[in-house]
Amino acid sequence: MSDIKEHMEVIGADGVHVGTVDKIEGSRIKLTKKDSGEGSHKGHHHYIDRGLVADVEGNKVRLSAIGAVAVTMEEE
User: Fold this and answer.
1) pLDDT for 15-71, tens place per residue?
2) pLDDT (0 to 100) of residue 70
3) Which of 26, 31, 50, 66 qualifies as a cystine partner to 12, CB 3.0-4.6 A?
4) Residue 56 contacts residue 63 (beta carbons within 8 Å)
């Protein structure tokens, strides 16, 4: 987790953009509001559990799940 910094891109195992790191809070990655989605999710911070992080590659955090699945695992 110490390799994960603010403004890094979070991508799924398939390379699909999932979000942008706002900051680390405990064992979760807080994503920026601009990546919060649509409808009732819009304007809320979402979180990804660090257990989903597979690797940190340059300025990207790669998750172990593909983008479409990772989005369903986000917490508000």
Assistant:
1) 999 899 999 999 999 998 876 555 445 566 788 999 999 999 999 999 998 887 877
2) 79
3) 66
4) no
The string of DSSP codes covering 23-67 is EEETTEEEEPGGGS-SGGGTTS--EEEGGGEEEEETTEEEESS-H
15: phi then psi, degrees, rounded to nearest 5: 85, 0
Give this prediction's pTM: 0.83
Domains of the chain: 9-72 (2.30.30)
Instruction: Return d(Cα 19, Cα 12) in angstroms, integer.
Output: 9
